[in-house]
Amino acid sequence: MAGATTMNAVRSEWTKQFSLRSTWWCLVAAVVLVLGYAAMAALTVRINGDDDLSAQGIAVGAVFYLGQFAVVSLATLAITTEYASGSIRSTLQWVPVRRRMLAAKGGVLAAVLAVLGVAVTLVAQGLSVPLMGGNGVPVSAGSVLTTSLAAGAYFALLGLLCLGLGTALRSTAGTITAVFLLLMMLPMLAGAMGMPELAHGFPGIGGMNAMIDAGAPNPLFGGVAPYPPPVGLLVAGGWAVLALAVGHTVLNRRDA
User: Fold this and answer.
1) Distance CA 225, CA 67 (A)
2) Residue 223 contacts by C-beta under 8 Å, 6 or more apart in sequence?
3) For burial by CB atoms within 10 Å, which of 131, 183, 184, 192 has the most?
4) Is the pTM value of this prediction over 0.85?
5) Ramachandran region of residue 49, left (φ > 0), alpha (ψ -120 to 50) or beta?
């Protein structure tokens, strides 16, 4: 019975998510931003004859500097629009067990964003290679696949992070601001203050480290990560779990 109820909640969230125009706009924006960045960066490598950048590095830059912010918008709006419109009351009447509602919403988000991350990163790397015109650092098929899988996992974890913070803050602007601080501003501040090791503990930098080869320099700071790539996903996952725990606590203690 509980399993059937959970599947009903997942189906409901799936239908709700894809009935929102903001979902489609954010998905399209992610694809356009990542592929547009990749194409322009690859053409720049071709024109300048640059041999220091690879298709993998271009894709990672596209995901980190542009693509992830479309993901942040999609995942944040998935929960904050319900609070803004008051439809969260109907959602909780339909799924009164609040942790089940949060789990269903998180499951749908994670699945959609994982597929998006893998697909758009694969295409970005495939697009970059011919546009680079034989310039740049060559990459192996294994590196391309690993980067794409890591991007998919990072997008899923980033979506869960935004879901947790959005549930706790109940504000679109507040959630996006908080996530932007975690992804960009605080790591850059730590790096500027001479504490790059601290920066590697933030979710965005952890995700970036997961997408690059072991021993390769981080594109943002230039130094090598103090841990292997899979640990970067654990860093991002730890932040996602913390955000979901806070969101779940607030969801249980406050009225909708």
Assistant:
1) 22
2) 196, 217
3) 183
4) yes
5) left
How far is 230 from 150, CA to CA, in rounded Å? Answer: 8
Residues 6+ apart with CB under 8 A from 34: 59, 62, 63, 66, 67, 120, 121, 124
β-bridge mates for residue 224, sequence order: 217
